[in-house]
Each structure stands twice: as C-alpha cells, then as structure tokens.
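Lecture notes, unit on binding sites. The following record was shown on slide 14. It pairs a sequence with nicotinamide-adenine-dinucleotide.
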Amino acid sequence: MRIIDSFRLDGRVAVVTGAGKGIGEGIAVGLAEAGADLALVARTRADLERVAETIRAGGRRAIAVPCDLADVAAIPATVRQIVDAYGRIDILVNCAGIQRRMTVLEATVEGWEQVINTNLRSVYFMTQAAGKVMVEQRRGKIISIASMTAYRGFHMISPYGISKAGIANFTRYLAVEWAPYNIQANAIAPGWIRTPMTAQMGEDRIRWVCEHVPQGQFGSPRDVAGLAVFLASPAADYITGQTIPVDGGFLAGNPWPTTSSQP
Ligand code: NAD
C-alpha cells in the first residue's frame, strides 16, 4: 500500500460517542471524509440527525443511535444496534464527556459520580462492549478523548481531571491486553478547543488561555479530527497505548507575557 493510501478509512465502520456537537461532531465528519461509515452516539437525537445528514451529504452512511452513556446498562444494547446495522465495528472514538465545577472541599458524591460515570465508567464499558466485536474480527482501533487536565492541576475540576487521567491509563492497559487481537488503543489530550463546552468561558479566562498557549489561540474540532483520522488509519498500526496532546503547545511550556520588557 502506498503510504498516502494508508491514511484512508474506506469501508471501515466507526462509532463516535458525543458526536452531536463539538469535538465529537468534528471527528465524526473527519472520519467520514476519510471514507468511513458512521454510527453517531449521544443523548440528543436532533443533534445526531443533523450530523448524520452532513455525513450522508458527503456520500457516506450514517446512523443516529441516541443513548445516555451515564446509564451503563444501556451500553450493550447500543452496541448491538450498531452491529445489527453495519455488521462490524472497526473504530471506536470515546468522545462523550461533561465538565462540572466543584472545589475538592465542596464536592458531593453525586457531583463526583456524574462526572466519573459519564467520562470514565462509560468509556470503560463502551470499550468493553465494542471491543468484544473487535476481538472477534481480530482488528480494531480505540481512540479516547482525554485532556491536558490529565497532566496538570486546575481550579475546581478535580473529578474531571481525574476522569481524564483514568482514560490515559486505561489506554495503556488496553494496549497491553488487546495487542494480541490486533487492536490499537490511543488517546488524544486536547488543550482548549472552541466548542459548546468552552463557549461559556469569561473574557478574562479566554485572555489567560491565549497568553499561556504558545500558539496564542484556541484550537478547533478539526484540529483534533486530524489526529483522530490518523490514529484510526492503517498508517498508525504500530502506535498503541499513547496519549497525544493537541494543545497548541500548552503542555510543552508557556511563553513570557508579551508585555515583559526582559529579553
Ligand atoms: P460538548 O459539550 O460540546 O459535547 C459533548 C458531547 O458529549 C455532546 O454531544 C453530548 O451530548 C455528549 N454527551 C455528554 N454527556 C453524555 C452522556 N451522558 N451520554 C451520551 N452523550 C453524552 O463538549 P466538547 O468540548 O466537544 O468535548 C468533547 C470531549 O472532549 C469531552 O470528553 C471533553 O471532556 C473533551 N475535551 C474538550 C476540550 C475543550 O476544550 N472543548 C478540551 C479537552 C478535552
């Protein structure tokens, strides 16, 4: 295969959770542009149908599969519905996630469980359910959306950061356990990306981000989609267990203030 052809996903079936908006939507459309057929999973059918229409307009197949992934009991039936429709699952992108603000001192068990169950428990059991199909096929790609918060502390989002660190470590365990089945598992750690999740950020925090990210701006869902397409493709067949940042350089280091008079 020519190296350029190994980036294509023609004939592959991809499942994307959280595909109704934001990063998940960007990844789903990107995978379809690379040739994959899509199963779109999130809570709101109307959002999923809108994304499915975009994908169908581009010539690929797409189905909307509404599911609340915080309800772990609903996951096996969701995966069965996708296998009934397509007969296989080649790529799983775990993107659904929420952020809730709470200090460590004020956190409640309810708030903790809401974040951990949506962001981490659902990833574990969605991967288990889709993984059973991939093990049978002896082929698969798992891509989970972690975050730079897996590596650095921030104010008021400790359960979120813990859930994302869990995703990064789960990815290593998957790489080891499922290598014999020709399944590769990787994660993406986005920095600040323009989506509905970051849309409510205040002016002062937006300015802080732009001053501390070396590239000086937020990323877009397309920036994350580029890496997801690569990791889903045969071009990445020898890459597994990694969590790769897409963060404009934030984890690499922070620039001096532009107002600094020092060299
Ligand atoms: P978003 O709020 O714009 O979209 C989240 C998607 O997840 C939506 O489609 C929503 O319906 C779905 N979802 C949420 N809870 C769900 C549930 N219980 N069941 C099914 N679907 C559910 O968020 P986004 O900014 O696009 O974030 C997507 C992922 O990327 C999340 O995991 C988030 O933590 C991660 N992330 C985002 C950023 C950022 O800057 N936006 C940075 C790092 C990581």
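Take-home: Residues 18, 20-24, 42-44, 67-70, 95-98, 118, 145, 147, 190, 192-193, 195-198 surround nicotinamide-adenine-dinucleotide (CB under 6 Å).
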